[in-house]
Amino acid sequence: MQVLNWSKYLLLQTAAPDAIVRLEYTDLAEEKKNIEDIYFKQQHHASIEDFLNHCVHGYHTETGLLMQVGLSDNLFFCVPLYPWCNPLHNS
After folding, report:
1. pTM assigned to the model
2. Residues 6+ apart with CB under 8 A from 40
């Protein structure tokens, strides 16, 4: 059961926010509250800065780090990356 729960947690990290909001229309409607709590309160989906800070400063394991960043707009490439990269060099 532990492997199954960890797999669900990792899979949830890759979900888009609109998929979480639409859970009430799926077979997972009964689990909606629990899934929303994990996605919006435990995991870091608020901003790319929040996510990267968590990865760099708050998430260390012996097995490494899994990271997936998906962007739905090209506006991200119009801003310089250095504000997010500086913490990477200071750790």
Report:
1. 0.62
2. 20
The token duo for 6 is: 């960890």
Q: Which domain holds residue 35?
A: 2-90
Tell me how far apart the alpha carbons of residues 7 and 12 are, in angstroms, rounded to a whole number. Answer: 8
pLDDT for residue 89 is more than 70: no
* Number of domain units in the chain: 1
- Each residue's pLDDT tens digit, 37-77: 999 998 888 887 887 787 777 766 666 777 776 666 655 55
Q: How many Cα atoms sit within 13 Å of 71 on the Cβ side?
A: 9
> Is there a contact between 38 and 12 (Cβ–Cβ < 8 Å)?
yes
Residues 81 and 71: beta-carbon distance below 8 Å: no
Note whether 16 and 51 are within 8 A (CB): no
